[in-house]
Every structure is written in structure tokens, then in C-alpha cells.
Design brief:
Blueprint: E1 8-9, E2 13-21, H1 23-26, E3 39-43, H2 61-68, H3 70-73, H4 75-81, E4 87-94, E5 100-102, H5 106-112, E6 121-128, E7 133-138, H6 144-152, E8 160-164, E9 170-173, E10 179-181, E11 185-192, E12 198-201, H7 217-223, E13 237-241, E14 245-252, E15 257-263, E16 268-272, E17 278-282, E18 286-291, E19 297-302, E20 306-309, E21 315-328, H8 335-343
Antiparallel strand pairs: 1-20, 2-3, 3-4, 4-11, 5-12, 6-9, 6-11, 7-8, 7-10, 13-14, 14-15, 15-21, 16-21, 17-20, 17-21, 18-19, 18-21
């Protein structure tokens, strides 16, 4: 069997933030650095993350993208994103609220950010304290002038829509959506692999050095959607529900499709990689991934760990107990994507670049 045909178990990178906390360790997701360091994000598929298993141990994900190209990425992922890893998966612990942000579409980022991608993302709420909320768009339709004046007066929060959330909620955040994660929330985020974020507003907060945090006002005003949101929480669709497992599609768009598999009593679920790599993150106890000739080889991951299945892997079998998330770049004719659109008509054609 070729060496590229195995699940790549990645060592996540942890990111200290002023709004983070220690919940990732307290709730059994990650082992954090000792002390009072506030960790806000665990980046699961950052291109600098190193492989922890098999022949590629010690190599970074970015290096493998360069070496393997479409064998790792897949034809559809390559068609949408080119020769770069397509999606960045994260676990996020918001101990306090984040700044209000907005991301550009691909076309704007390409023109104004040196050819970079824009950013469309989605959130899957894993934990939310009572009363926790996110900022999502505006309470009522507004315009650039009103928003600019509110930013200057430090009163933008009066215009913003706040949506209460709870565990299990799915929120689609297409480029142009003004948004912020509130405090007391832990979530799983999947996004286009892009670092382009415009900070629109930060409530007048000071940084650790005592200075106002940098805002990107003009560009955030350029790309923001000013209408009130039509739909905030998405409707997952059931694909399979048997005594052994439940399979749901949480979200689907041209950039990514994410399914949640709930394995019951170590049931086995089989699949095949085709024209996209797959990202699998374990939310349950543990998962074994069988692959190779006769599915005789296997790799295990536990709660909070992530693997990448190369597009060239082929058949695989998942065995375990509890939930996992499986994400990939869908083809236009993907049947699951089409089924999801029927249940989420208001957003089915929202993102057009």
C-alpha cells in the first residue's frame, strides 16, 4: 500500500487569547500548558501541525500538501481551493465575548488581500452556559453610514442582533455576516482556510498593554451585509437512524459539508473517500478507523483529536462509541448537499461570490 494512503493524525496547535479560558482541559478535550494561560482556540488542521503517526511522522500538513497535491486534497477540493489545504477546523473556548468581526468573500480578498481566500464558516455549539448568546447580523436593516457612526460613538452594540444558543445549535456564517461569539460558549468551527478577519468593533475594550485594540473599519464596512438575518440556526437533516448509529448532515455549502455520526455500542460505519480529503474530529470516547487492503489496518483517535483522510485513501470503516464530525468539500451533485438545501431553502443560494 502506498504511504500516502493512511489517516493522518495531527497534533493540534493551541492559541492563547485574551478572551479564552481553561475549559478545553477542564472538560476533557485537550491537555493545556500549565498555569493560568488562557487558551481560546485549538487549531486542528493548521498547516504547521505535525503528523503524529505512520511514515509521515514529524512532517507538517503543509509539507504534505506540497508533496502529495491532489492525492491528499482531492480533485474537488483542488478545483475550489487550489493547491492549499482547504479547511481549518477549530475547537473554540470563549470564556468572555469576542470582538465583532466580519470576513470578506473570496473575490474581495483576492483583490485587496494579495490573492488570499475570503472566509465562510460554520459553528456547532458544543456547550453554552445559561443565557449565552452570539452576535449575528443586525436587529433591523441598516446601512454603512449608520454603522460607521455607531462605531465612532462606541454604540454599535445597540444595532446588533443577539441570538441565544444552546448545545446542538448549528449556525452558518457566510462571508459578509457581522458576528461575534459570546462568553460562556464552546464550539467547533469549520472555515475556509483563510486568516482574513476584519475587526469591526470591540466595545471600547483595551488590550493587555492598555491600548485600544486595532479595528479595520473601512474594510469591514466594505464587506458587511446590512440587512437583518433571514435565518440564523440551520436545520440538520437525518440521513440514517438505526439501532447502531445516527447520521446527520449539519451544514452544506460549496466550501464544506459536515456530517455528525453518533455511534452506538461500537457500531461500524463504512465509507469511501473520493474527490476530497476528509477531516474527522472525535467528540465521543474513541474511534477506530480501519483502512487499507481488506480494512486490516487501523488508527485510533480519542475525544478532541482530529485526523485527515487523504482523498486517495479509498474505503474506510469507523468503529467506536459516541459522536464524531466528518467534513469534506462536496461536489455540486452531492446528494447530501441537495437534501440539506431542501430543508434550508433560505440559505441554499445565499453565498454567491
Amino acid at each position: 500500500m502506498e504511504t500516502y494512503c493512511y489517516p493522518l493524525r495531527l497534533r493540534a496547535s493551541l492559541h492563547e487569547t485574551i478572551w479564552g479560558g481553561r475549559r478545553l482541559e477542564r472538560d476533557g478535550w485537550k491537555q493545556l500548558p500549565p498555569g493560568d494561560i488562557a487558551i481560546g482556540e485549538s487549531w486542528e488542521t493548521e498547516i504547521s501541525n505535525m503528523v503524529q503517526n505512520g511514515p509521515y511522522t514529524g512532517k507538517t500538513l503543509g509539507t504534505l500538501v506540497e508533496e502529495l497535491g491532489v492525492l491528499l486534497l482531492g480533485k474537488q477540493a483542488f478545483a475550489i481551493f487550489g493547491r492549499r489545504f482547504p479547511l481549518l477546523a477549530k475547537f473554540i473556548d470563549a470564556n468572555t465575548h469576542l470582538s465583532v468581526q466580519v470576513h470578506p468573500k473570496d473575490s474581495y480578498a483576492a483583490r485587496h488581500e494579495g490573492g488570499k481566500l475570503g472566509k465562510t464558516e460554520f459553528w456547532y455549539i458544543l456547550m453554552a452556559e445559561l443565557g449565552a448568546h452570539v452576535v449575528y447580523g443586525f436587529k433591523a436593516p441598516t446601512d454603512r453610514a449608520e454603522v460607521a457612526q455607531a462605531i465612532q460613538n462606541v454604540t454599535l452594540d445597540r444595532l446588533l442582533h443577539k441570538e441565544r444558543v444552546q448545545a446542538g445549535d448549528v449556525l452558518y456564517v457566510p462571508a459578509g455576516t457581522v458576528h461575534a461569539i459570546g462568553g460562556g460558549i464552546m464550539l467547533y468551527e469549520l472555515q475556509e482556510y483563510s486568516d482574513v478577519t476584519y475587526r469591526m468593533y470591540d466595545y471600547g475594550r483595551l488590550s493587555a498593554s492598555g491600548k485600544l485594540r486595532e479595528l479595520h473599519i473601512e474594510r469591514s464596512l466594505d464587506v458587511a451585509h446590512y440587512e437583518a438575518p433571514r435565518q440564523i440556526k440551520m436545520k440538520p437533516i437525518s440521513l440514517t437512524n438505526t439501532y447502531g448509529y445516527e447520521d446527520r448532515c449539519l451544514i452544506a455549502c460549496r466550501y464544506f459539508l459536515t456530517r455528525e455520526l453518533q455511534l452506538k455500542g461500537f457500531a461500524a460505519v463504512e465509507g469511501i473517500t473520493k474527490n476530497s480529503c476528509m477531516i474527522i474530529s472525535c467528540l465521543g470516547e474513541s474511534i477506530q478507523i480501519f483502512y487499507g487492503n481488506g480494512l486490516k489496518e487501523n488508527e485510533s483517535i480519542s475525544r478532541g483529536e482530529t485526523v485527515v483522510l487523504p482523498a486517495a485513501l479509498g474505503r474506510y470503516r469507523l468503529v467506536g462509541n459516541g459522536a464524531l464530525l466528518l467534513s469534506y468539500v462536496p461536489e455540486p451533485a452531492d446528494e447530501v448537499w441537495q437534501q440539506w438545501q431542501v430543508s434550508n431553502l433560505m440559505y441554499s443560494a445565499l453565498h454567491k461570490d
